[in-house]
Known about the structure:
Blueprint: E1 2-6, H1 28-42, E2 46-53, E3 57-61, E4 64-70, H2 80-91, E5 103-106, E6 121-124, H3 139-161, E7 164-167, H4 170-179, E8 187-189, H5 206-212, E9 217-221, H6 231-241, E10 248-253, H7 259-268, E11 275-279, H8 287-293, E12 296-299, H9 309-316, E13 321-324, H10 329-332, E14 340-342, H11 346-358, H12 360-377, H13 380-391
Parallel strand pairs: 1-2, 1-5, 2-4, 5-6, 6-7, 7-8, 9-10, 9-12, 10-11, 12-13, 13-14
Antiparallel strand pairs: 3-4
Helix pairs in contact: 5-8, 6-7, 6-11
Amino acid sequence: MKFSIISYNFIGGSTGYYHFGKDILIGGGEVYLYYLVKFLSKEGHDVHIIQTDSKEISTNLDNVTIHGVKMPFNLSGDKGLINRYVFFNLLWKKADAWKNSDRIHFHDYLNAFPHGDNRMTGMSMAINWDDPRYAVLDSLGLKMRFYRDYVRFLAKYAIKNLKKVVSIDRFFFRFVQSEMPEYRDKIEVILNFVDTDLFNSRNNGRSLRSQYGNDRTVILFPRNFGLGRGGLELIKAVSILVKKYPDVLLLMTGEGPEKPLAEKIVKENRLANNVKFIGHVDHFKDMPKLFAAADIVVVPTLSSEATSLACLEAMATKKPVVVTNVGGLPDIVTDGFNGLVAKPHSKYLAEKLESYILDKKLRQTLANTGYKWVKKYHNYKLWCNQYKQFFDI
Length: 393
């Protein structure tokens, strides 16, 4: 079968994410798509991806053909959303690859308007209108309120018009069941999976750990600095912790629009000895070692979250996790059972982190349970079988 997958991002740099080469995967959404196309290709299907690029171009990566669609404007910051959900929605058909396809699938179902129909499928990576800043009546809040209303319109269009939609968390399914119950049977929940051949407790992080100090408590933030990722709130939590635990070290990966503000907060609070920015880390080569080097992993999401790949990777590496009660994270972590769950504020993040700092036995117990959980419920074989059913292949 010929598959055409529509995705704003796949390989290469994106607005607000710097220093990316042409074959670099930016974050979890792109890594997810990489595994999906790898699976489809292995099953013998002809896979094409249509994404944005600096020019109209076609290239290949691991037997997958990638077609670039040039956007009319180079918009940055919050204006980049205009490219993502206006121009790309209108222009992806410029790439002829979608023609004569047996399956057309939107990696982000919000790109379905206005061309989506009941022959096509899509995926919800997360509900992305749950940011409390919408309620603030300042310039940012008003922009975000408009964005919220627009993406809700896009979401409802996709749910109504596409044949069916994958949800990688139950949060989105519950939204549809509550707001659009007549369409709930279109939603199929396929929770994220983790590659345990790559992320596991056998990985050796000792050489990395020695760089940061074996006597320090190393906390890892394995995210980009996108809006809603929670990096700023985590820095504030560390500023609370260092008053009692000066040996705490927070490692922050990634790039993104909030990074300059994060660096400013670190400087203003004199946290240079406690917060290190280590930039983009190659997902396949270096992230496994970085997880292995950490004592604690935090996914401090404020909004727009599904079943976080970074969280699953940490749990597969037998690391204790702290997450927030946002989006699909409660689908992965139950507080006190296989990790700790906090409200998405610095005070509560600091409290949960302190519990781990004070109790190494708690860390080990929850990390072991977390490992067993992801191995049972978030494994690759289960994920592949669910996608075979979804695509009817």
